[in-house]
Amino acid sequence: MTKKAKGGSIRQSSIRRWAPLFICPVFVAFCIGFVWPFIQGIYLSFCNFKLVSKATFVGLDNYVQALADASFAHSFWYTAATAIVSLVLINVIAFAVAYALTQNLKGSNIFRTIFFMPNLIGGIVLGYIWSMIFDGILQAYSTSILLDSTLGFWGLIILMCWQQIGYMMIIYIAGLQAVPEDMIEAAKIDGATKLQTLFKVIIPNVMPSITICTFLSLTNGFKLFDQNLALTGGLPFIIQPDGGTINTTEMLALNIYNTFYTSGAATRGVAQAKAVLFFVLVAGLGLAQLAYTRKREVQQ
Amino acid sequence: MKAITRRSFLAGVASAATVAGLAACSNGSGSKAASDGARKGKVYWLNFKPELDTTAQSLAKKYMEKYPDVKVKVVTAASGTYEQTLTSEMDKDDAPTLFVIGNRAALKEWGSYAMDLKDTELVKAQNTDEYNLKDGNKVVAAGYCYECYGICVNDELLEKAGHSKDDIKDFASLKKVVEDIHSRASELGFDAFAATDLDGASAWRVTGHLANLEYFYEEKKAGSTWTECPKTITGEYLPNYKNLFDLAINNSTVAPETLATGGHDPETEFAQGKAAFIFSGSFGYADIKDTVKKTSCIPYYCGVQGEEKAGLNCGTENCWAVNDNASEEDKKATLDFALWLVTDGEAAKDMVDALGVLPFTGAPEGTNPYLNNAADLASKGNYTMDWATNFQPNVDTYRAALVSALNSYTGDQSEANWGAFKTAFVDGWANNYGKTSA
Question: Could you give the angle at which helices A268-294 and A207-223 cross, rounded to 10 degrees?
């Protein structure tokens, strides 16, 4: 054995020996901050509880109630519609803006900064600001974003686009800049039109950016909470003949929150069950979408 | 002579130290502590009223200076988040020892965490038990202040418009005055009602307070006050609710269609003399007292028979409960502290300034004119309208539905929209009752 190799193996074995010491703090933090609450959360979804430390096991009752809840079903479809519409709009517009800003325009750096800025504002603040803007306009037509669920829907879409386009744009710009110049030049020499270059060369090459952006906007759409709370808070409601309500612009996360906090202790377990279903849904959708777009990525 | 051994020397030193220690206890600050049964322990007051926070913090500090062995912590839950804060705080080792159980729903939720206050000095010091929350014989929470609400009037503006508060005796006379002021608003420079906003900051005026008239008259007709949440209500007096609600929104500083969005700040409109009437009460007085010099509170006149003998809506959501799971020492410290807040001369004065009234023997006289109006009316034999509204089941959800229905109604005052409100009001009650008692 050479001297060098011997030295290397000593180093490796000492890394191996001390590794647990270095991994330990992060692992403990991960367990405290994620693994344990996650397991407890799942356990609580099978319980009736007021305080989390005093829970009684009730089996699948909570899941049965959650799935039978008309407002939960409504908020699921509403969330799905919001997520899909915003996914398409955000990504198409963000890509278009990114494409425009990589064409050596004058002042493109300033535009990039400005487009990115809305993303720095918190959701609650944004919701209130936009509700004022919308109502300022809608007042002229004697209506309000709180009176019409269609207005509420598009209001939320505009808000989400305004907030997220800048962020996705940055990711697309990075992707576009990584497309090899020689490929585009080769396409040009071969006589490809601008449109052909875009669809046959550029888009396949920025597929990794598209994967990440669609993943982010899909999960963001599903998990949206504070903007929803501040913009409409679920209003308007449909008052059902039995006196119950369907909150027409309530998304899943807000529905879970309202179930947890506004019905006293009676429905906390149900809210927890909804939260677990919500997790499974978001995780499942996210993974499926990743698998789908990954297949379309090309090797450079 | 016997040699002093090490052991006997130590014993001597120890006994000398003990004597010195006892002597030290019997003078100075020690004597106060001894006479008060040596106050010590921890008090954690989870305060419910944001407007009391400054006073509460400074009184806690004063108390700790007086009794250094007692540690007092005051935390005030942000407006509208008491339930959430209480839920998370009660789960901690260092849970609140003094907290608020304000209504029947909270009693159901938290009653088992509260000790029985029946034989405590705190309850004995009260001059009325009307505002206590009881569960059978157990006094779960002790009312430490009460409030009243109705229609607050700016008397000066009323006089300027050529009317007097004494002209208003029932709904018909109220309507006459209100409609007259509204019709001459541009000439007078002020309008009748301040904006009855339906946003989060203001909707309680109508979904909580004004709604009380409906529940109260149902109670009155049945001949007994509710002691627990009824399963259903009839909505028989909703037309009366509508009378007053319509009057307020159609004779106001703002157009009814703009109420859903809100953002008008009715309190400021009233404080600045832009409106002569507002749905408010004793709690709102602090914000307007600097600008509105002559003001009074009149009952909800809504067209019910015999309403000339109506009084104000009086009640409270401010009731102290003591955490039964705290240690005996901390429970005692908490009760001592609470008693001190309402009976110590200086402390009680600060409390009255912040709360308007303290229902405890020997507490300073209140300076809140609305509370005085309430007392005047009661002493004339008018019936006080109790807070039946506190029984609203699943209150946040129930009220949210009322807001949504009223939003539509203020946008378009059609029969269909009023019908939806009626459904939310009456059937929503039963529906939410079912949800919470499931």
Answer: 170
